[in-house]
Design a protein that fits this description.
41% of the residues lie in helices and 16% in strands. It has 22 helices and 20 strands. The strands form four sheets. A six-stranded parallel sheet has the order 3-2-4-5-7-6, with helices on both faces. Strands 11-10-9-12-13-14 form a six-stranded parallel sheet. A six-stranded parallel sheet has the order 16-15-17-18-20-19, with helices on both faces. Helix 3 (55-69) runs parallel beside helix 4.
């Protein structure tokens, strides 16, 4: 056992971060965190501290770091308004099951829950943290910091989402004896039940037209997924978090548009690491359609109609077990040519129906190397990128998932770039969403973070304005925007900027941006774009 050592709570927290391999922290200082930041000052030889201009900025940066790398993204904010400013990013991390650790300051430990009106006090701050994380704790003594940190990092490693650790002001500042604990070995993921695997394999082997649906819980199981899809001749449908688990150039990798076209003939569905939301609530399961679900979180099985077979296990282990069980399956007629034709037809529909958006994406794809990371905001081109951007590997397309967090992408992109310094990282945003966190241009310039930001400017919350025009008789309200001169705005922060008129000019501007050694902003003036939703959220034909 390690010897007891006298440390402040702040020093203990920093030592725990080091023990768990953390090398970057995004944070804003404040009086309740003085003990932590004083300790961080002495750790600058191994720990990079990225400060920002708003708590939502540091929280989104931690999210981007975690989503792009799979490693814990850590941020620190003061209690009360600091936490509340970070909650949109924390809720997005919850949505994405991203390994984000929120270090949240607290008021003096003896005043928690008393209601004295301490600076930054919230009624039941711990309750707020608990509802936006999948693990939370409060360190009420210095010696609790190491074991609580170990629990937090173990929860992150389990792949279920963010964790929150509250650190009272007096505990961070006071010295006490602590035992510096080494990280515990990661708990092995749950193994699949052999009986459930046999039942699932029997269903799949008897299927005429099986389909595999994957989400972010299948990241890391790409090889097994590829083998299983070929054994079964089953297409692999993915959306948002699942994209890139199977290279999108693979003929068996399909999107929602193709999946809906195939849904009426699909008799057995294998859902892996996904909420399975659209198939359950939009496409609808029909009588006789059988469902097998694999998820590390068994809570998912109780949401909606229960599956025919539920396998609570790590996706990679469960898929490997299915491959082994199905190893003697006779060769099936190949579906490759039919799936290629379906994907080609879908791509043609996207280009025909959404020509302006697709022209920009095609230009970006031609300019960017394959390993680039794209962070797509809730903006016109970003919507299409979530479905049509070619993704060769996981973590190369980051979206806000079902949270749909408008304005998340710029600060999230900064964190992704910090985590992926050798890969180009591109933020796709609109003039509406960009100004949610545009103040972080100061952070990009201060810390020399070479994120490429592509800003599509239509002078509006474009999707809302189009809906008001097309669906509500032109009753436009609160969707038109007054914007700054974005070239001058970027220059004021010392950020290189360029305007690109049209798709071809965008490609040239991105190549220019990759040659710069700091952050860049590319403004793309655009007008009203075609409505994408019939393609992006399709429903199968009735009957």
């Amino acid at each position: 056992m390690a010897a007891r050592t006298s440390m402040t709570g702040g020093e203990a927290m920093v030592a725990a971060l080091r023990a768990h391999g953390v090398t970057t922290l995004f944070g804003l200082p404040g009086v309740q965190l003085d003990g932590l930041f004083n300790a961080l000052h002495g750790a600058q030889d191994w720990l990079r501290v990225v400060n920002a201009r708003h708590e939502q900025g540091v929280a989104y940066m931690a999210l981007g770091y975690a989503a792009a790398t799979g490693r814990p993204g850590v941020f620190a904010v003061v209690p009360g308004p600091g936490l509340l400013n970070a909650t949109a990013a924390l809720s997005t991390a919850y949505t994405l099951h991203a390994p984000v650790l929120a270090l949240v300051g607290q008021i003096t430990s003896t005043a928690i829950g008393v209601g004295l009106g301490e600076l930054h006090e919230l009624p039941d701050q711990t309750g707020i943290v608990a509802r936006l994380t999948r693990w939370n704790g409060v360190a009420m003594r210095q010696e609790e910091i190491f074991p609580l940190a170990a629990e937090a990092f173990a929860a992150l490693a389990a792949g279920r989402g963010p964790a929150g650790l509250e650190l009272p002001r007096d505990i961070l500042a006071r010295s006490g004896d602590v035992i510096p604990l080494r990280p515990a070995p990661a708990a092995p993921p749950p193994r699949p039940d052999a009986g459930a695997i046999r039942v699932a394999a029997a269903l799949l082997s008897g299927a005429r037209a099986p389909m595999i649906v994957v989400g972010g819980g299948a990241i890391g199981a790409g090889d097994e997924l590829h083998r299983l899809s070929r054994l079964l001749q089953a297409p692999v449908a993915s959306h948002l978090l699942g994209r890139g688990i199977l290279d999108s150039r693979d003929p068996f990798a399909i999107g929602r548009t193709e999946a809906v076209a195939l849904w009426p003939e699909t008799d057995v569905v294998l859902a892996v690491g996904t909420r399975f939301h659209s198939p359950r609530t939009v496409w609808r399961l029909r009588p006789g359609q059988r469902v097998i679900r694999i998820d590390i979180d068994p809570v998912q099985f109780g949401r909606g109609q229960p599956p025919d077979v539920a396998i609570a296990a790590d996706a990679r282990a469960a898929l490997a077990a299915l491959v082994a069980e199905l190893g003697a399956l006779p060769n099936r007629p190949s579906r490759e040519a039919a799936l290629r034709d379906l994907k080609t037809a879908t791509e043609a529909r996207f280009h025909q129906t959404l020509a302006p958006q697709m022209a920009f994406l095609d230009s970006l794809r031609a300019a960017l190397p394959e390993e680039s990371v794209v962070v797509a905001d809730y903006t016109q081109v970003g919507y299409i990128a979530a479905a049509a951007w070619p993704v060769a590997a996981p973590r190369r397309l980051i979206s806000p998932g079902y949270q749909g967090t408008l304005g998340f992408s710029f600060a999230t992109g900064l964190g992704a770039k910090v985590g992926c310094p050798t890969q180009p990282v591109v933020c796709l945003t609109g003039d509406g969403g960009f100004l949610f966190t545009a103040n972080e241009l100061a952070t990009a310039a201060q810390h020399r973070i070479p994120l490429i930001t592509v800003l599509f400017n239509d002078g509006a919350y474009g999707n809302v304005r189009r809906m008001q025009q097309d669906l509500y008789g032109g009753r436009v309200i609160a969707s038109d925007l007054r914007n700054p001169d974005f070239m001058a705005f970027a220059a004021a922060f010392g950020v290189a900027a360029r305007r690109a008129d049209g798709a071809e000019a965008l490609g040239r501007a991105v190549r220019w941006a990759m040659e710069q050694d700091g952050p860049t902003l590319i403004e793309v003036p655009v007008g009203k774009m075609p409505d994408p939703w019939a393609l992006l959220e399709p429903s199968p034909p009735r009957g």
